[in-house]
Amino acid sequence: MKKSELSVRYITTPLLKHGYDEETALSFEASVMSFVLGWMIYNQNQPTHVYLETIFNFEDSFDLGLTAIVKGLAT
User: Fold this and answer.
1) Which residue from 15, 34, 50, 71 has the highest number of Cβ atoms inside 10 Å of its Cβ?
2) Residue 43 and residue 22: Cα distance in Å, rounded?
């Protein structure tokens, strides 16, 4: 088995165990990774982070958003 195939198996195993097929599991993983990556970009951009903090609690919103994505994927 190639290294890339092992990586796919590693990140999808928990979802495969819950009955999802590999393509769906990878799509779910990609959705979560995209959210986290985008959020971290905003977090690292200090002017944007400071501005967003004036609108909402940055940390609480991350938790809320991630929870919403995970719960949505579970339905």
Assistant:
1) 15
2) 31
What tens-digit pLDDT sequence spans the chain (75 residues)?
Answer: 676 777 777 788 998 999 999 899 999 999 999 999 999 998 899 999 899 899 999 889 999 999 999 899 887
Burial classification of residue 25, based on how many CB atoms lie within 10 Å of its CB (0-12 exposed, 13-18 middle, 19 or more buried): buried
SS3 at position 67: helix
C-alpha–C-alpha distance, residues 73 and 68, integer Å = 8
Q: How far apart are CA 11 and CA 4, in angstroms?
A: 11
Do 73 and 31 contact (CB within 8 A), yes or no?
Answer: yes
